[in-house]
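Hi W.,

Here's what went into the run:
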Amino acid sequence: MQKPEKKKCTCLTCDFRELVFANLNSEDFDRVCNNKVELCFSKGEMINAEGDTVTDFKYLKSGLVKLFRLTASGEEQIIAITRPYEFVSNTHVFSEGKYKYSLSALEDSVACTINLDLIKELIEKNGGFGLQLITVLSRTTERIISQGLDIRNRNLAGRVAYVLSYFSKEIYHSRVFDLPVSRKEIADFISMSTANVIRTFSEFKRDGIIKSYGRTIEIIDPDKLEVVSKRG
Amino acid sequence: MQKPEKKKCTCLTCDFRELVFANLNSEDFDRVCNNKVELCFSKGEMINAEGDTVTDFKYLKSGLVKLFRLTASGEEQIIAITRPYEFVSNTHVFSEGKYKYSLSALEDSVACTINLDLIKELIEKNGGFGLQLITVLSRTTERIISQGLDIRNRNLAGRVAYVLSYFSKEIYHSRVFDLPVSRKEIADFISMSTANVIRTFSEFKRDGIIKSYGRTIEIIDPDKLEVVSKRG
DNA sequence: CGCGGCTTTGATGTTCATCAAGTAAAGTGG
DNA sequence: CCACTTTACTTGATGAACATCAAAGCCGCG
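Here's what came out:
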């Protein structure tokens, strides 16, 4: 599940330069670059764990990650599954000293870490950078909140349809894709039992909404999927 | 439900000065003060509606509010119920041009509005202010996210117990309090049916966990409430 | 090749929504 | 202030949705 070795990756151009660091002058950007540590995580590897002390500001450069916490009964509750650009650090690195959630790689991923104190110093020094960061952070947290509401709102079939539609449209931009998660992880995401998630997959197959071979999913009838997702 | 008249209230000292505006020098604080409009909302009144254009940064000075959105079927889905200090503006005023959620007063409330462009200008000019704002905003959004997860995690009885415990401990700091919301609103908050919320109240009464006369609640057995809240 | 984890399906019981009917409470107009 | 209307609350009965348990097949990995 979790391989401890982390190797440094090469870092040529930072895709986040425009998204997050556009407002930094070249001197400050150099400081960020020099401070930054780029880490590769292989599929299944932990990026950070619930309870760890927050020392870095993290963002995902490539790959796919899941944000989750452990429930009282020891089950994983998945909070978000996100690609780069959208996900920037955890939701609360500025207000809490310890991570409240764990983060692990669903696909091979590259994350950059920058010392949080440096980021704070740069915000204080450069308000434009701070404003941009507020905007980016707020976009991500807003997505997490509204997705949580969307899930709460739906019944079993609606939740499964919603998740499939999310992977298809937001993550893979394709009607055919390989699920990056197990059936159990989908269940942990939508707060339903694994058996019922699988049952719903079977129903969707029977109804000609999807085809699936293992983790490979093809959405045959996106319109019907959308209808089911809108509470059906 | 909704009275259109809004009257200006007197504004002597701003309680938010330390929480949000501590980093502003007196000149900038004066600009905020001059720009700020203080509005009184009576119980039930809308503060802003889903879809309205975001022009102001808002924070609650006193009272109690609910943040909610309308579902596809026209029902209210309540996202958060918060007192002042914790709630600062909506969650996404920096990343979206229009409100995604509505905000209305559960008790008579006073909200301050400041032109959002001024806030942005001050962030750009004063990074310390920006950093403080990030911290405060992130604290609120984090609470909304984790509360959503807490709710998703629980069954009917657990959700009702959780909400009662929330009102008792976080909002009113007392074992006896008047519910600021109807049974239906609790149902809209925890995504359960009104009838079942009421039934659960009755069960809690029968089991000697609470007493209730209308909206007045007394928590008799906080420990048992806690046990039920922890799923079951 | 055998073990363990993931997947699948069926059967069963619990939990929950929905409908219906009635009571209490609260606002509304004369 | 009272009759009227509406809205909130309450409870029971019923069926639908969902969890849980169990058994079996599949697949990857050592």
